[in-house]
Here is the input.
Amino acid sequence: MTTIAKQTTFRHKLAYYAELSYLQYENLRHQYFLDWCGKIAHQKYIPLKWLSKNDYLKNWFDDQWVALVEGGIKRQYNTELDAGIFDKDDVLLMLDTFYLDLQYFPKILIEKIIKAQKYENQESNP
Here is the structure.
């Protein structure tokens, strides 16, 4: 990496080794968020839009991403990443694999989103 190691986050390191710009990495992370929302929407029989536009849910997902995906990769593979053992496809596979750990969702928050959306729909359709 061309920048000083202490100035970069682990997220920057993952983006670098996956051969993605930081913006591309953030877009990939957002695609994972939409996929995760789609699974919940399918389980709960609600529109994907209700979940994907909710900032609280996005923030919750981002916190989980940092802890479970980026944190998991850092704990298990940081030394090997620095040694250059993995290529782009390996890093993308790691992201995919650790993303599978995000199978849980905040039930109370989902219920509040559903309730709020139903209330908004009643207000707009008197």
